[in-house]
Amino acid sequence: QKEVEQNSGPLSVPEGAIASLNCTYSDRVSQSFFWYRQYSGKSPELIMSIYSNGDKEDGRFTAQLNKASQYVSLLIRDSQPSDSATYLCAVNSYMEYGNKLVFGAGTILRVKS
Amino acid sequence: EAQVTQNPRYLITVTGKKLTVTCSQNMNHEYMSWYRQDPGLGLRQIYYSMNVEVTDKGDVPEGYKVSRKEKRNFPLILESPSPNQTSLYFCASSLVAASTDTQYFGPGTRLTVL
Is the distance from CB of B74 to CB of B23 less than 8 angstroms? Predict the structure, then answer.
């Protein structure tokens, strides 16, 4: 079974700080990596996708990918209380028919004002 | 508005009483999927469908059925619900099942089986 591992948290950071969320995956052939944000009782929403080694920045969010280490991370700069949510890491897994997303259990982030 | 809808949003039922959770998308997506989400376990795939009349089991299919008679609809059927199926359920869709496709999620259905 292909796996995606995340620290469940909660990760607590003060407002304005950088929040660092980490994820490791077991499938070496995975090529696509996604971060979803999920507020309590709501559906996941995509905030970042990354396909190549290195960094990808979008506003306050930066995704980092290291395929050799099978590691992907999400940095949130200038964290705001509205960033408090569960962050799900998802990794594609190649199947016979196409691709499937495998999700981690999520990291709870709490931003304290 | 492009969206995935689910009904009902909340459901409390009793063991053994058949139920159906509907899912519909208006984005002309080929691929649709059902997940359940339980604390500490993340999203686990129940069933998926590559296209009309093409469905297959995901990681946790026991106790569930699905059908895909039209591209836009992908209902989840629990023939004889049991308490261990109490969970938060999400339907999702994407254009196809490409590695770079974004999955769009419905609002979720919170099911309680007594």
Answer: yes
pLDDT at B63 over 80: yes
Residues 6+ apart with CB under 8 A from A59: none
Express as a percent the part of chain A with pLDDT over 70: 97
Chain A: closest CA distance from residue B81 (Å) = 22
Mark yes or no for CB contact A100/B105 under 8 Å.
no
CA distances to A2, B63, B105 from A71, in Å: 14, 35, 25
Give the chain A residue whose CA is nearest to the CA of B87: A41
Distance CA A48, CA A98 (A): 21
pLDDT, tens digit, 9 for 90 and up, residues A31-66: 899 999 999 989 999 999 999 999 999 999 999 999
Provide, as residue numbers in chain A, all residues whose Cβ is less than 8 Å from the Cβ of B91: none
Q: Which two tokens stand for residue B72?
A: 């836009």
Among A87, A93, A90, A92, which residue's Cα sits nearest to residue A103? A90
For residue A43, the chain B residues in CB contact (below 8 A) are 90, 105-108
Measure CB to CB from residue B96 to each of A8, A98, A105 and give the nearest one: A98
Rounded Cα distance, B73 and B23, in Å: 6
Q: Chain B: nearest CA to A95, how far in angstroms?
A: 10
Q: Which regions of B17-106 does DSSP assign to beta strands (E)?
A: 19-25, 31-38, 42-51, 54-57, 65-66, 76-78, 87-94, 104-105
